[in-house]
């Protein structure tokens, strides 16, 4: 983020004083309006294919954020390379607040598994707001005949010559990490099948082409409820209300440390502070509405309003965490 230039600061002050004198909008609203933002639609890039939790979260939040900004928030899917393609696109976009990126754990796992990225995950971006957090799920193709985590582990151990396959949303992503760490914890071997987004992998598990799925509950919940997928364990510190009968991985393996998913919004480096503040303020207002809180809870997620600085600190901490996990789990791409 950068500080307001003097001319902009003067315009902001004059607009705020005028609003107060006329009994108009609050100063916080005047700050955003004085900056002239936004005066056209905002693009929210999803660096994964449609159907995954990033896409679901982006589309819902965009539908609620647009009215507050007075402009449409248009979702644009730019999938590929475990979110790197979409992230690079945003990193090279104009830092005016009109091109934003929804990120999740993959953004912070990539620096741990890729030797070189086409951007710096910290210096090339401006943190805007954390959206929420939620659990992951370990699920199977119903035709596999597995009804519990113990049965899945037993089957995997009996299939060492022809290992089970498991789908994730991409190489080096949070679901890849979860799958590899689970194999090490349970003493089993499965073959990883990465996809360009969780939705594509989920489709192949539902059709039986792949046997096991690691995904977010938010993305897989409808398919679990209609029987297209069989959930066997939740990756969360505690059981969750939307799937109360599904145990956590830690109930079988007490040493397990949860890799809960999170979502947030960032923009290119160098965004003006008033624009970042306006976006953060409106996003947090959206997250605090009962309607949005209830929707997130129905997806097993929790809204998590934050400041840009708090979100930036979380990103840095997550990068450090996954670099350590990548070394211990021997996860590397290049």
UniProtKB/TrEMBL annotation:
<dbReference type="InterPro" id="IPR005064">
    <property type="entry name" value="BUG"/>
</dbReference>
<feature type="signal peptide">
    <location>
        <begin position="1"/>
        <end position="30"/>
    </location>
</feature>
<dbReference type="Pfam" id="PF03401">
    <property type="entry name" value="TctC"/>
</dbReference>
<keyword id="KW-0732">Signal</keyword>
<dbReference type="InterPro" id="IPR042100">
    <property type="entry name" value="Bug_dom1"/>
</dbReference>
<comment type="similarity">
    <text>Belongs to the UPF0065 (bug) family.</text>
</comment>
<protein>
    <submittedName>
        <fullName>Tripartite tricarboxylate transporter substrate binding protein</fullName>
    </submittedName>
</protein>
């Amino acid at each position: 983020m950068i500080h307001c230039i003097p001319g902009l600061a003067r315009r902001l002050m004059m607009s705020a004083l005028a609003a107060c004198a006329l009994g108009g909008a609050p100063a916080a609203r005047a700050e955003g309006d004085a900056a002239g933002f936004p005066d056209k639609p905002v693009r929210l890039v999803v660096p994964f294919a449609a159907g995954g939790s990033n896409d679901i979260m982006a589309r819902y939040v965009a539908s609620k954020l647009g009215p507050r900004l007075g402009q449409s928030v248009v979702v644009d899917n730019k999938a590929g390379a475990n979110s790197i393609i979409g992230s690079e696109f945003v990193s090279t976009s104009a830092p005016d607040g009109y091109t934003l990126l929804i990120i999740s754990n993959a953004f912070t796992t990539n620096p741990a598994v890729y030797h070189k990225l086409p951007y710096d995950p910290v210096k090339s971006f401006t943190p805007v707001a954390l959206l929420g957090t939620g659990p992951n799920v370990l699920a199977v193709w119903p035709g596999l005949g597995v009804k519990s985590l113990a049965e899945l582990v037993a089957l995997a151990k009996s299939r060492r010559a022809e290992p089970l396959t498991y789908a994730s949303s991409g190489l080096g992503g949070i679901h890849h990490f979860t799958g590899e760490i689970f194999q090490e914890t349970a003493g089993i071997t499965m073959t990883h099948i990465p996809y360009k987004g969780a939705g594509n992998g989920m489709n192949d598990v539902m059709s039986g082409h792949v046997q096991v799925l690691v995904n977010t509950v938010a993305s897989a919940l409808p398919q679990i409820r209609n029987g297209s997928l069989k959930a066997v364990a939740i990756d969360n510190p505690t059981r969750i209300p939307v799937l109360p009968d599904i145990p956590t991985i830690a109930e079988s393996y007490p040493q397990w440390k949860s890799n809960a998913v999170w979502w947030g919004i960032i923009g290119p480096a160098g965004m003006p502070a008033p624009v970042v503040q306006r976006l953060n303020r409106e996003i947090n207002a959206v997250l605090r509405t009962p309607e949005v809180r209830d929707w997130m809870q129905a997806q097993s997620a929790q809204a998590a309003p934050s400041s840009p600085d708090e979100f930036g600190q979380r990103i840095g901490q997550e990068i450090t965490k996954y670099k350590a996990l990548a070394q211990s789990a021997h996860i590397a791409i290049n």
